[in-house]
TrEMBL record:
Gene3D superfamilies referenced in this protein's UniProt entry, alphabetically: Winged helix-like DNA-binding domain superfamily/Winged helix DNA-binding domain
Protein name according to UniProt: Rrf2 family transcriptional regulator
Domain of life: Bacteria
Transmembrane segment boundaries: none
Species per Swiss-Prot/TrEMBL record: Janthinobacterium fluminis
Amino acid sequence: MPSDNRLSRMLHVLIHMDQHEGALTSAAVARMLQTNPVVVRRTMAGLREAGYVQSEKGHGGGWTLARGLEQITLLDVYRSLGEPPVFSLGLAGDSPECLIEQAVNDALEAELREARQRLMARFGAITLAGLARDFATRRCRPGGAPEPSL
């Protein structure tokens, strides 16, 4: 199963947007992510609907932040992406009448639910401003290269 990297990619884009003067076009974001502008627009649509970004059409248009990074958490972005699965583990369903399968599924389901709840709580506590500060710290370290400009 391929991993879903949309959350990581959108966090990256949002921090770039904060550090970029003016709007970023879908084409510029697509070049950065090595993808198609249509994919960018489709993915950014959820962020726009949630009120984290805004877009302007036409010459000089593009994507801009609608809120400051301190007002956006990892959980916010995760939810705007449709809450993709965070675990690739699944429950067996081949023999629902099997008591062993039932016991295994009950144990796994409870633990996976608790792990997801903890992860979502942690996502809610991490702001994009915190990630941007971490980037700034890394950038200032010896050997820390600046991010390429868009």
